[in-house]
Amino acid sequence: MNSHFLPGISIDCVVFGFHGNQLKFLVTRIINSDLYALPGGFLHEDENLSDAAQRILFERTNLSNIYLEQFHVYGDKNRRSEETQRQILEGIRASPEAVAFLSQRFISIGYYALIDFTKAEPIADYLSASSEWRDLSDIPPLIFDHNQMVQKALETLRITLDHRDVGYNLLPPTFTMSELQALHETILGEKLVRSNFQRKMLSGGLLERIEKKMTGAAHKAPFLYRFRHDE
């Protein structure tokens, strides 16, 4: 275990991607176990929090300059199960130094990330056997308070859903109105009335319709849209 990590501080990330009209998130399976966790890591002594989160996610996705938002701090004194902690340490076959570091109480800084699903390469770190995408409808039991983190990140994402940044970072550069509606529906967990949704989106000033239409459609080709650039 790196001796230059700050003690007692960890970073956990809820990484969202959008694919097949479904919002997905990354989970890792801890090596030699059936335990699942969010991607995470620790803070170097000479590192800013946001830089540490970017580094951790680069190591897990091979993407840089990821859109990140800090959404909560987790510091409950009972947030970690001793039995789960024992299974983790046995699974990773930790050295005495690592056991001492990982056994201390941690305060975790929660970030959510919005990334392009098609460009991400889920990568398992040295503590993980695998890294994979899961649908929000298929959330496995996660270690400690990580399930709470997913729900809190999703709640925060819903609050900011009408901001440009959400769709801009989860959708391709050009998209149909149906794709945008599907994104909103999967985040909100409810169906939306098409006409009302389209009226709201077009009146908000965030979108511009481009002349090119979607090709290969079975019926009338729908218009393509993109988000307006910041002025």
TrEMBL record:
SUPFAM superfamilies: Nudix, Winged helix' DNA-binding domain
Domain Nudix hydrolase: 9-80
Coiled coil: none
Residues in NrtR DNA-binding winged helix domain copies: 167-227
Protein's name according to its UniProt entry: NUDIX domain-containing protein
Species of origin: Arundinibacter roseus
